[in-house]
Amino acid sequence: MKKCILSLALVVAAFSGAQAQRAPSPVSAKDFTFTTVKENPITPVKNQNNSGTCWCFSGLSFLESEVIKAKGIKDPALYPDFSEMFIVRRSYLDRAIKYVRLDGSLNFAVGSDFGDVIETAKAYGLVDQKAYTGMQYGYDLPVQGELDAGLKGYVSAIVKNPNRKLTKVWPKGLDGILDAYMGQVPETFVVGGVTYTPESYRDAQGINLDDYIGFTSYTHHPFYTQFAMEVQDNWRNSPSWNVPLDEFMSIMDYAVENGYTVAWGGDVSEAGFTRDGLGILIDTKALTAGSDQERWVGKADEKPAEKPAIKEIEVTQELRQQYYDEKTSTDDHGMHLYGIAKDQNGKKYYMIKNSWGEAGAYKGLWYMSEEFAKGKTLNILVNKKAVPKEILKKIGLK
Fold first, then answer.
1. Which residues of the chain have pLDDT under 70?
2. Which of the four, 15, 39, 98, 390, has the lowest number of CB atoms within 10 Å?
3. What is the Rg, in whole angstroms, of the alpha carbon atoms belonging to the chain?
């Protein structure tokens, strides 16, 4: 996720800056009452704080729910709690090696995507959170600006190849920086009285990492084929299956209805994605008809307490493609979709777990409208068992 919004404090600052140029958002959590239709188990909300690691927080939250389902875990006290920073650390080194091999023609930053979570876990395993926090620099929550800058400076210097021949030890230098900031990765650790390595702990989770596949829906590639999403943080070129929009949405619905969850990646820069827990694709043209003055401050005879009726944009396949082509849908953020709800008017929403701590009206959870999901979801990751059989057949999978 390119921007991968960092923390609630930064979100508040961003919204505050926007408010200086436009009227307050016409949607507020206090105007909504949600009723759960279907909700699947999730682990507690975490806080990525000042780190661009939403891809890892959401990806591992998704895998934690997969383990809960696979093992039939009923007691929340027994839910898995995977270390995000273990995956982040291993990913840093893999990306650095590729960055150097490509002479710096690769985005080297902390952002990434769900495919990175899967591939890193396949290669290196998983670690329990208590065994590895990945924070050795004096903070209780991730604060990685200095680390990110230090790593980028190091690999940028290596790419210049000052000796005209790279040594074999430069990756050890990067590892030294990671050890200093994140701590050494444990070779073994104990969970529930059992000693594991990262690889054996991964293998004990009851899930098959080959079962996870990505989906998207765009017209610049043929449907029922795979392509790597053209976003700079997809540095592993993780593929997504391309399907029509109605089938794309049906995958999310089918997954939730059958007890699965979805790793969600998309755009959260819209005015209707609020800091208090809502994601609504507001038709701003409907709200701002009239003069320029009316657009920004309202009509002169309008009562201050009144709000215009909320109208959402109706998303089509063509409009979704337009958003992507004109870059009004960008690779902002990763979250974990786990349920379906309805508002007081019977309108459908998806229940989303975010990674900004217990922020907003719903303690770290968001309600995303169906139209928002149609227009602003870039890609998803699901268990292939959570995909309707007729769609699997169309892409040649069983």
1. 2-25, 286-309
2. 390
3. 22
Identify the CA nearest to 11 among candidates 350, 369, 366: 366
Reduce the DSSP state of residue 138 to 3 states and report it: coil
Phi, psi (rounded to 5 degrees) for 47: -130, 110
9 sits in which H/E element:
helix 8-19
Mind giving me the DSSP string for 178-247?
A: HHHHH-PPPS-EEETTEEE-HHHHHHTTS--GGGEEEEE--TTS-TTSEEE---TT-TT--EEEE--HHH
Nearest to 209 by CA among 368, 387, 381: 381
Q: How far apart are CA 83 and CA 128, in angstroms?
A: 5
Q: Give the DSSP per-residue string, 88-105.
A: HHHHHHHHHHHHHHTTT-
Q: How far is residue 291 from each of residues 162, 282, 287, 297, 298, measured CA to CA in Å? A: 60, 19, 12, 10, 9
pLDDT of amino acid 302: 52
- Give the H or E element holding residue 173: helix 170-182
Under DSSP, the state recorded for 44 is P
Burial class (CB in 10 A: 0-12, 13-18, 19+), 78: exposed
Q: Report how far residue 60's alpha carbon sits from residue 81's, in angstroms, rounded to the nearest whole number.
A: 9
Whole-number pLDDT of residue 301:
55
Q: Judge whether 355 and 61 are in contact, CB under 8 Å.
A: yes
Nearest-angstrom CA–CA distance, 392 and 211: 12
Could you read off the pLDDT of 143-153 as tens digits, one per residue?
999 999 999 99
